[in-house]
Specification:
mainly alpha, 68% helix, 5-stranded antiparallel beta sheet, Multidrug efflux transporter AcrB transmembrane fold, elongated, Alpha-Beta Plaits
């Protein structure tokens, strides 16, 4: 095998221009193929396609267009400015051709006009019973007198549940009155959110989606094209940013407070992920090439030698891309990021072969002969090291997780092409551009065969290690590796995808705040139902789950008794029109709140307090705890209002009159809504506002129900509980939490399977290629020991696995197997040398090879995208550990295995 390789290398060296011409043509063709190689930027490209959860998600995407919204977050301005800006921004976004549905609010008017479908049936009946025949409108004074008489006689004929409802309504009314009395500035409108919050409908007064404290307002935006590829996603988000910036500039020019605008949701996360990785790849490849080139120039001080190493490696990497177009047929973020690692790995083979050529030249052999012998003598070692990397990556190609499998196939092809480039192109380049040889000490010339063993058994002024020292080094090293491996099983896995983004990621920042401060988040569970009846069941059952914070559904607009409710609403509308309530409210509004009337109000408050105290005793005796609690709240509001008015009677009367007029205006609005009930028509999905219809109903009649998790889906325990409860409601649930639940486990299982298979395949390959127990031990133990140290160091430094760096251990095995293989090769080749002398001779080459890998991976470690940077840190730790094990432990193992070489 070595002789055949030597003959091929000799032919390449004798005909360099022909070889380089062939390489040039191959590279041009490869470049053309690579230019048309699809680059799939969507996260979906990394995930399995033939799973049930993937099929459910694809089905939903086909019917509804998108499963995840881009969420625009507004904050940093008063609530009125936030909502006003949200309305303006939504209008501007809807005018953009590439932007699809924009939902900034649910239209309260629509829901009020269909309130008869939403409120409990008994309350609808109560509204109907309250409507009276036309009569003489009562003024406020007469109404107050009747109320006082009613309180004096005591309320009768009211059941306890109805009394509790009345007490709750009065309490909300008095709480709002107290707000008008005590606010620093007189309010301009009623705050219905405070009332609706008691019924879990906060924000519905104005319809805007907001945080619980109202300080953040959310807009949900979808692209017209639902593709997750960056070619679609990038321009979509850039356009949203541009429109938001232009809207903010207009608001600022008008002298308004401009809200702070942030983007989150899965589209924003994928956008940041792609832009960060793309920037990091460009930076890392350039930085890695520069650092590796600088390292080689500093160590060997030869531009020609650097060209002999880098050109074959670069051509091989290009050929590897062309091969990828024939195998996997595309690139993903994961496979593209591997190119930086390939720079370090590919340089090793050129360093090993060129160092052997240089050794042969130093013995005085002619250039072509030295090239042939150098390539031939190093062929088995390079084939063993490169083949080990090939089978390791090939083992990764067998895992079920496509992200890892495609990485394995592309990496294996890249290694193969770089090996071919090294064996074919390097001899031709070396023949044309032979590097200048550097002088070396005579006693370290490997080709010298000497019998003066005592003199060459010294290294750095020190004799070879004693046997006790050798045994101690090996025992400590193995014990440390074993302890590290055990600690490696305790390294936690961080399932939080947001932790992979850059540290200053706005998408991650707002996503975490949405989970903590609102009932909304981007990672939503989606139920699909064949009809309204099934959707109603899902809505009711999902709403009872502890793992769900909020359920979004339109089933309450389609109750089973919708037809009966519609008839009642028409009757109520007709009764309200005949009773002429508008005239009654107008009379009260015109009268205002003069002082005599205001005094009656104050007296009514005092009389009401006394009545409440008596009612509390009755409710307590009846055991109605809810009524007792609500009466106590009512009494507290009455006392607070009385105290506020007593401190400033004049101001209290003025503010109370403004509050009365606000109530009258709200009553007019309510009557207008009830008036529409007279001509109400049956509600169907086709009559829904477009934004609601597109979000909740597909063209084939499928109904969507959205459930927002109560806790982070990136906590495995929370996610397991969520999915167990969700699948108990419907096995057809989909959305990010469902895919994340399956694929997160697939990543971990793929890592375990791939790593074990890679280690086994690597060891079997080494045994088959080395055919020597001593050579196998020298090649494999430094790798295994270094791997154990790596895991121990990761545990010691508090590092965690994540979706990006979990592949680090298999990569370290593929990268660092070269060190032990080269040491083992030189051990068997330099039979007249001691282990420490072999370390001196081989160590420079191994250290240079490791240095090229560390230079490239060191650049990865400073990437903005923390998924890439943590992978670089882990691999760097692993390479340093394997290098130390090779240079320190391998010589000790060699001395122990062959004590005759110690002197």
């Amino acid at each position: 095998m070595a002789q055949r390789a030597a003959r091929v290398a000799e032919r390449c060296a004798r005909h360099p221009w022909g070889v380089l011409a062939f390489a040039l043509v191959s590279s041009i063709l490869s470049g053309l193929a690579s230019a048309h190689l699809p680059f799939y930027t969507a996260r979906q490209a990394l995930l399995p396609k033939d799973t049930e959860v993937a099929r459910r998600l694809d089905s939903f995407l086909t019917k509804f267009g998108a499963a995840s919204d881009l969420i625009v977050v507004l904050e940093g301005a008063p609530r009125a400015e936030l909502t006003s800006f949200a309305t303006e921004l939504a209008a501007e976004l809807r005018a953009e051709p590439a932007i699809g549905p924009v939902t900034e609010r649910l239209d309260p008017r629509f829901f009020l006009e269909h309130a008869y479908l939403l409120i409990p049936a008994e309350r609808l009946d109560r509204i109907g019973s309250m409507m009276t025949a036309p009569g003489r409108p009562l003024g406020l004074d007469e109404s107050l007198q009747k109320a006082m008489a009613w309180l004096k006689d005591g309320p009768h004929g009211i059941d306890l549940d109805t009394a509790a409802d009345i007490a709750e309504a009065l309490s909300a009314l008095l709480e709002e009155w107290q707000r008008w009395l005590s606010a620093d500035e007189v309010p301009t409108a009623l705050d219905w959110n405070r009332v609706l919050a008691r019924h879990g409908a906060e924000g519905m007064a104005d319809g805007y989606f907001a945080a619980r404290d109202g300080r953040m307002v959310f807009l949900f935006v979808r692209a017209r094209n639902a593709s997750q590829d960056f070619e679609v996603l990038g321009p979509f988000i850039d356009r949203v940013k541009a429109v938001a910036g232009a809207t903010a500039a207009k608001a600022g020019a008008a002298g308004r407070t401009v809200p702070q605008v942030g983007l989150t949701g899965l589209p924003a996360i994928e956008y940041e992920e792609h832009t960060a990785v793309q920037k990091d790849i460009t930076l890392v490849i350039g930085t890695a090439a520069a650092l590796i080139g600088l390292l080689i120039l500093v160590v060997v001080r030869s531009v020609r030698w650097a060209l002999c190493i880098f050109v074959p490696m670069g051509l091989g990497a290009l050929w590897g891309l062309a091969l990828a177009s024939l195998t996997v047929g595309h690139l993903t973020l994961m496979t593209a990021s591997f190119l930086a690692i390939l720079f370090g790995l590919g340089a090793d083979y050129g360093i090993f072969t060129s160092s052997r050529i240089a050794e042969e030249r130093r013995t005085g052999k002619p250039l072509v002969e030295a090239i042939a012998i150098g390539i031939g003598s190093s062929f088995r070692a390079v084939l063993t090291a490169g083949g080990a990397a090939f089978v390791i990556f090939g083992a990764l190609g067998t895992v079920d997780f496509p992200g890892f499998a495609e990485l394995g196939v592309v990496a294996a092809g890249g290694v193969l092409m770089i090996l071919i480039g090294t064996w074919m192109v390097q001899p031709a380049l070396y023949a044309l551009l032979p590097p200048k040889l550097t002088a070396v000490p005579k006693d370290t010339t490997p080709a010298r065969v000497s019998s003066r063993a005592p003199r060459i058994s010294h290294y750095g002024g020190h004799r070879a290690w004693s046997r006790p020292a050798v045994v101690t080094v090996i025992v400590v090293a193995v014990a440390g590796a074993a302890g590290g491996a055990v600690r490696g099983f305790t390294i936690p896995f961080d399932y939080d995808v947001l932790a992979l983004l850059p540290e200053d990621s706005p998408a991650a920042h707002y996503q975490r705040r949405m989970v903590a401060e609102s009932d909304y988040q981007a990672e939503v569970v989606i139920f699909t139902a064949a009809d309204i009846a099934e959707a109603r069941r899902i809505t009711e059952e999902a709403g009872r789950l502890d793992s769900i914070a909020r359920v979004q559904s339109l089933t309450n607009l389609f109750p089973p008794d919708a037809e009966a409710r519609l008839q009642k609403a028409r009757d109520i509308g007709a009764l309200a029109a005949r009773a002429d309530y508008a005239a009654r409210i107008g009379a009260i509004e015109r009268a205002g709140l003069p002082d005599p009337t205001f005094q009656r109000v104050r007296k009514l408050l005092e009389q009401g307090r006394d009545t409440i105290e008596g009612s509390q005793e009755q409710a307590f005796s009846a055991g109605h705890a809810t009524l007792v609690e609500r009466l106590e709240q009512l009494r507290g509001h009455i006392e607070a209002i009385r105290d506020t008015i007593d401190r400033d009677p004049g101001g209290g009367r003025e503010r109370s009159e403004r509050f009365l007029r606000a109530l009258a205006e709200a009553a007019h609005t309510g009557l207008q809504v009830i008036d529409t009930w007279r001509t109400a028509e049956a509600l169907t999905p086709d009559r829904l506002p477009p934004a609601l219809r597109e979000r909740f109903f597909a063209a084939d009649g499928t109904v969507a129900v959205y459930a927002f998790p109560a806790e982070s889906v990136y906590d495995p325990a929370h996610l397991d509980r969520l999915m167990n409860e969700v699948y108990g409601v419907s096995e057809r649930a989909t959305g990010f939490p469902t895919t994340h639940h399956v694929f997160s486990k697939a990543v971990v299982e793929g890592f375990i399977h791939g790593t074990l298979l890679a280690v086994i395949a690597c060891l079997i390959w080494l045994i088959l290629m080395l055919r020597s127990l001593t050579g196998f031990v020298l090649a494999s133990l430094p790798l295994l020991i270094g791997g154990g140290w790596m895991l121990g160091a990761m545990s010691l430094f508090g590092l965690e696995y994540n979706y990006a760096n979990i592949i680090a251990l298999p990569l370290v095995i593929a990268l660092a197997v070269d060190y032990g293989v080269w040491f083992s090769h030189r051990w068997r080749e330099l039979t007249d040398r001691t282990p420490i002398e072999i370390t001196l001779i081989a160590g420079k080459v191994i250290a240079l090879a490791a240095g090229t890998e560390l230079a490239g991976l060191g650049a990865i470690s400073v990437a903005d995208y923390r998924g890439v940077s943590t992978m670089g840190i882990d691999i760097t730790i692993g390479l340093v550990c394997c290098l130390m094990a090779t240079l320190l432990v391998a010589p000790a193992i060699a001395q122990l295995l062959d004590p005759r070489r110690q002197a």
